[in-house]
Amino acid sequence: MNGLVRRSPWGEVLIWCVAVLSLTVLATAAVVRSTVLDPEFYGQVLEDERAYQRFYDEVLVDPDSTPLARDLLDRLPVPQSTITSNLKVVIPPETLRAMGDRQIAEVVHYLEGDSDRLRVTVDLEPVVANVERLSRAYFGDAVAALQQRSEPDFQAFVQRLSELAAQVVAGEAPLEDLPSLPLSPSQAVAATNALLRLVPTAARADLRPTVQTALDRGDVASALAALAPVALTDQVRAVAGELLREANAGTWVVTVELDPSYEALAPVDRARSVTRLFQGVVEPAAAVLCAAALTLLWFSTPSPARRRLMPLGWVPAAAASLMALTVFLLRLTSGGALFGPPASWPPSARTLLGDIQGAALDRLLTTATVVAVILLAAGALLITVGWVWQTRPGVPVLTDPRHGPALTFAVTACALVGTVVAPVAITGSAPRICQGSAELCDARYDEIAQLAAHNAMATTADRFIGPLQDPDIVGQLNAGVRVLLLDTHRWERPEEVADRLSTSDFSPELRRRLTQVLERVNPPHPGLWLCHSVCGAGALDLVPTLRQIGEWLRANPTEVVTLVVQDGVDPVETRNAFERAGLADLLYEPDADPDRPWPKLKDMIDGGRRLVVFAEKADGPAPWYRNLYRYGMETPFAFRSPDEMTCLPNRGGTDKRLFLMNHFVTAGGGVRLDAGVVNSRARVLERARACERQRGRPVNFVAVDYATVGDALGAVEQLNAERLQDDSRFPVRRSPDGPSGARGARGSPG
């Protein structure tokens, strides 16, 4: 065989080509197995692109998605605003991630050929349970606070009561007053029987005593309130019942057979054909051919053995070059995407899919590049060893063991010096950073714009009913929020709930619905709390939350954070809470004269006083606890739709240094879908510039709901960039004493 190969040069070339191509195929198969056929590959890509978070923050709030979302939500027995505000409660991120992991496994099985159909599997049970929980909270006392009206006779009373009960069971809160009529014991029984016909038979025995007792004393509201959760729960389950009946153990399984003619699915079908061919035919054949070709190359090269290393080394080197060329061509021609989404998809969904495809392709090509480098290194090593072995049979520096320690020390020292010096030589010294930017260090606190989170404590992460933010407070700070609007309260006693709701930004209808259900399912707790009007709808313990903010500030020493407290708690108790939280060394004391300029950010940071605290009502007793409206002004905040937003003066007048722009829609507690519109960069910039022109002062705090939805942070950063380029756009009032960062004496309330 040796003589035959050497007598045929073309045969040797053929063997060498077979070796290179087969090794390239094996390397490509290794890349495919570690990427396309590895579930962790897809999971990591989704995490890197924040796909699950972007599903909530971008896709579901995309204005082009709104009609579809509203149409779907109209079919649920819970109002849209309740579902959208509590979207992460209805479909928690962990549920969405579990669905994603399951689909990834299905895709991999399909690509491997283990299944002939691509199955989309969704477990509806957690979603149905969460909708049920929301429906209980929302409808349990939907009618409890409605005032009563008299009916002329018992027959009319029962007729009207049955109509209202049916309305509640259908998922609609009554819009009219409840009927009232003094009932005899027999009439109370008859009215109870009429109501109980609307609930499942199995629940009637448990409900009867509560409903009849309420009707005995003429309390129609309590009777309906007891009835609604049970009846509505049955309806919620009926909404998903048809889907669940098609499933096994509460799972709705839809099997889709891919049609190559369908543009969106054709690439997956083609990928499956390739992976099956690779696994079933190409990879085994390449392994056999590669082994045979390398063996022939070894024996076709004359002895000694050191002469055989170099031809073997050129094989992986050539395979590496072939892979590198392929990677280069794919990067040049792919455009970052393998296939385009359907044109009917909303822009945010198309963008998300494009980003996921780009990240996946980049990770795949990066893996291929690493494999190519490994092959190249292996080939270079074989070539180098073979060359040295043939031409330098005795190199004392490399072969004498006495030189080993000296060579090791020299190489290690050079590596360490290079590791330390190279980054500095390339990048220079790191610039100073203030509030996330090197350019803001010389800007004053009252000259910059900052992103503010309205009702920052009311989050889906902390499972508030009617949340207005998604991440918890630390998550908001990590996302770029630097101003937290917080509401402090004591946990209300039952008699205080109605009074508290009367001053909230909830709609009157929602106030009535929440009043009694919250006192029943969330009894009062002692202490100081962060709540959104009613602590029963969600609450955070004040002191531990303040301690978290302090820990974040200490972990981020170049940042300044501001708290605007809607203070429902005595200022002395608030001061004590800040002290118990260990924040005394961080609290900044504003100048007692609100007309004095604020210090530069770098001065606040150097002084270590990086937590500014304002109150909406209080002004003291601590010198760091100042009334916001002595130092700042604001826009209105009770906008029912994006088109109602104005820059009219509200609290604080029109001539203050600090300017709070309330930029959120308040419709029954906040609307996530509207946040997708008003939090867009263009919308924030348009309104901020309009308000700045009207007031002659830069907007300092941009307060939004759902701060991670849209690009309000990008708008804030653009405002700061524009101000740094042209700081003469706004008249800045100068005090004769100049800027002041020192702590002044307490001023009188303004």
TrEMBL record:
Coiled coil: none
Segments traversing the membrane: 277-299, 311-332, 364-385, 406-426
Pfam families: PI-PLC_X
Organism lineage string: Bacteria, Bacillati, Actinomycetota, Actinomycetes, Kitasatosporales
Transmembrane in keyword set: yes
Protein name: PI-PLC domain-containing protein
Signal sequence bounds: none
UniProtKB keywords: Membrane, Transmembrane, Transmembrane helix
CDD domains associated with the record: PI-PLCc_At5g67130_like
UniProt-listed Gene3D superfamilies: Phosphatidylinositol (PI) phosphodiesterase
Top-level taxonomic group: Bacteria
Biased composition regions of type Basic and acidic residues, renumbered to the chain: 724-736
Native organism: Streptomyces lancefieldiae
PANTHER family (alphabetical): PLC-LIKE PHOSPHODIESTERASE, PTHR13593
Positions of the UniProt region annotated as Disordered: 724-750
InterPro entries named in the record: PI-PLC_domain, PLC-like_Pdiesterase_TIM-brl
Keyword GTP-binding belongs to the record: no
